[in-house]
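Tip: read the tokens left to right.
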């Protein structure tokens, strides 16, 4: 289950400025409440898209909640959003999904710039050192599952990680070292369930092509407003994270100093054994202001409606009113933070101009290009109950392609053979026949060849809506195992 979002806001769609509801969730390393939760964050983020809006799909969908919550526990920032026509997002669902693709790209632009500017202060030395066990130590426990309880491996070619349901200690150690090296790389995971998976499949394969319009946007455009919101909210969260971690470290050092004084007084091993000692970390309950809020999940997590309104007025005063689209004035523009201090360090990607007490800017505020914004960002994809087959024709029903050409692997699907991809579907899907899904999977595996990047799992007894409890367990275990490799 997902916790309350750290941020709830809206952005304009680059398609037609339609306001879209968005949420951002932070992992525990960015929202620590104890020193034991302090850890490095390696610029990992995921976006999970929801099912078809006319059938009730939104970012509150139970399957979206389960999948996003599982990814969040793996140390990823997770973002969810409502397509046009879903929830309180404006507009209506389109026929060809082109508008929804641009909705998705709008949120991709926000997330990429947000995580690029989000940072946590270095934590050195680490407050908590984890013990290292060997086989000779009595504390060592073999947690390898018995064969009867292990989950069957996903279908894949030449993937040594799934050749056996159990792993030896040596092979497990080697795999862990490889995964540790991979886990240091920044990663953007694009995920979708049902219709969200269809839209994910239609996205361009090259991330830089999607981000190019965001690099030097025209002032007042949707691209520029998304950049401004991402950068403002990132600076705001940097302040909160820094304050939170500093408070935890200060409390930890104070407790550690007291425990050292007590240890000096306890000279005998017997007295140390019988003493309960001082617990270091875990008692602190220094929650973020956003978590203490009792506002509705639909409200901005750190601001009242009045401060949101004042913040919106500030954003709109940034650009001259003549350059704004009329639709932009209905975007609920919760720009982010009226709590930002005027003494904050300026961000190199924004031209800062002084402002008076009336929040009137003498000049427009423009965003600058950030060279290499996605240069080191690796991609990955997660598709849950993908709508392949006849529903997939919604995206191409007005194209000039023949039926034979549509049956071929599309260029957008080719990205699944290049970047790590996991597809999960049931054999009892009411919308797409399992034979069509198997044929689609076979085409992707043939295209991938020796490079094992695409994997899939056909879950027995699972339907499109994942109501079966055992099927849900398999779903979440597969998501957890896949994300752990990224």
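Filled-in amino acids:
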């Amino acid at each position: 289950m997902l916790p309350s979002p750290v941020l709830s806001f809206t952005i304009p769609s680059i398609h037609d400025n339609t306001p879209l509801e968005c949420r951002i969730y932070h992992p525990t390393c960015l929202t620590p409440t104890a020193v034991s939760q302090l850890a490095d964050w390696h610029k990992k983020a995921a976006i999970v898209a929801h099912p078809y809006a006319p059938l009730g799909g939104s970012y509150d969908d139970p399957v979206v909640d389960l999948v996003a919550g599982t990814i969040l526990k793996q140390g990823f920032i997770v973002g969810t959003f409502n397509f046009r026509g879903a929830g309180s997002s404006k507009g209506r669902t389109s026929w060809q999904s082109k508008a929804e693709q641009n909705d998705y790209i709008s949120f991709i632009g926000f997330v990429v710039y947000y995580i690029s500017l989000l940072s946590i202060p270095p934590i050195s030395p680490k407050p908590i050192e984890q013990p290292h066990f060997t086989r000779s130590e009595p504390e060592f426990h073999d947690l390898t599952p018995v064969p009867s309880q292990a989950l069957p491996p996903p279908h894949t070619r030449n993937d040594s990680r799934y050749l056996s349901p159990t792993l030896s200690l040596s092979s497990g150690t080697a795999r862990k070292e490889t995964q540790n090296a991979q886990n240091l790389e920044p990663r953007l995971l694009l995920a979708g369930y049902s219709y969200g998976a269809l839209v994910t499949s239609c996205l361009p394969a090259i991330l830089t092509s999607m981000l190019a319009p965001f690099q030097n946007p025209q002032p007042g455009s949707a691209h520029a407003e998304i950049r401004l919101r991402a950068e403002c909210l990132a600076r705001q969260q940097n302040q909160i994270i820094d304050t939170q971690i500093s408070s935890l470290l200060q409390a930890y050092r104070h407790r550690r100093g007291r425990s050292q004084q007590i240890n000096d007084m306890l000279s005998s091993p017997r007295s140390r054994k019988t003493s309960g000692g001082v617990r270091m970390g875990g008692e602190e309950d220094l929650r973020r202001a956003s978590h203490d809020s009792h506002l509705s999940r639909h409200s901005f997590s750190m601001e009242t409606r009045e401060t949101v309104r004042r913040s919106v007025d500030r954003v709109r005063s940034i650009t001259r009113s003549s350059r704004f689209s009329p639709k932009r004035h209905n975007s609920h523009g919760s720009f982010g933070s009226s709590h930002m201090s005027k003494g904050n360090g300026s961000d190199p990607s924004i031209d800062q101009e002084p402002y008076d007490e009336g929040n009137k800017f003498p000049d427009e505020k423009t965003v600058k290009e950030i060279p290499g914004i996605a240069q080191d960002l690796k991609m990955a994809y997660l598709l849950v109950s993908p709508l392949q087959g006849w529903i997939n024709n919604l995206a191409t029903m007005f194209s000039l392609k023949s039926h034979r050409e549509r049956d071929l692997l599309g260029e957008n699907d080719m990205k699944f053979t290049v970047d790590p991809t996991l597809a999960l579907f049931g054999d009892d899907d009411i919308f797409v026949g399992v034979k069509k899904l198997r044929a689609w999977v076979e085409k992707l595996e043939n295209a991938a060849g020796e490079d094992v990047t695409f994997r899939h799992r056909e879950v027995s007894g699972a339907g499109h809506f994942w109501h079966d409890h055992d099927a849900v367990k398999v779903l979440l275990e597969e998501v957890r195992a896949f994300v752990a490799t990224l």
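The chain has a mean pLDDT of 74. Residues 29 and 37 are 6 Å apart (CA to CA).
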